[in-house]
């Protein structure tokens, strides 16, 4: 359990530029706009989303998704991880481990 917390901490500290520096050019990159869910009492309006997909040794695509408020030129924040072309918002560490990314090895 403690190791999983450490892995999540490591994952939450990564940003798109750091991920590219660590893993190289992504196999897939997407940028777009999304709206916060209406039931989100903390956030309002639109936000930018940036997804970077990397193919691992298993052949699976691991997608790292980052977000920031629309118009904010500040830092991207890690949002979620998933597999597949869009990144499943319910992704978890196991999906990242299953992708077998050598640059982001969580199997230890």
What's the SSE blueprint?
Layout: H1 2-12, H2 16-23, E1 28-35, E2 46-55, E3 61-69, E4 77-83, H3 93-99
Antiparallel strand pairs: 1-2, 2-3, 3-4
Q: Can you summarize this structure?
A:
The chain is of the alpha+beta class and 108 residues long. Helix content is 24%, strand content 31%. The chain has helices at 2-12, 16-23, 93-99; strands at residues 28-35, 46-55, 61-69, 77-83.
Using only CA atoms, what is the Rg?
14 Å
Percentage of residues in DSSP E strands? 25-35%
Total domains, how many?
A: 1
Question: Percent range for helical residues?
Answer: 10-25%
Termini gap = 13 Å
The largest sheet is: 4 strands, antiparallel
Oligomer: single chain
Q: Figure out the total of helices.
A: 3
Q: Name the average pLDDT.
A: 80
Shape designation: globular
Kindly state the number of beta strands.
4
Side by side, the strands of the main sheet go 1-2-3-4
* Poorly predicted ranges: none
In N-to-C order, the SSE pattern is HHEEEEH
Structural class: alpha+beta
């Amino acid at each position: 359990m403690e190791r999983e917390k450490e892995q999540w901490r490591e994952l939450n500290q990564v940003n798109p530029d750091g991920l590219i520096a660590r893993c190289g050019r992504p196999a897939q990159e997407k940028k777009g706009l999304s709206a916060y869910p209406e039931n989100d009492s903390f956030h309002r309006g639109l936000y930018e989303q940036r997804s970077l997909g990397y193919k691992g040794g298993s052949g699976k695509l691991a997608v790292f998704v980052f977000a920031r408020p629309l118009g904010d030129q500040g830092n991207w924040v890690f949002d979620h991880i998933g597999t597949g072309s869009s990144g499943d918002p319910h992704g978890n560490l196991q999906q990242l481990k299953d992708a077998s990314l050598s640059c982001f090895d969580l199997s230890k």
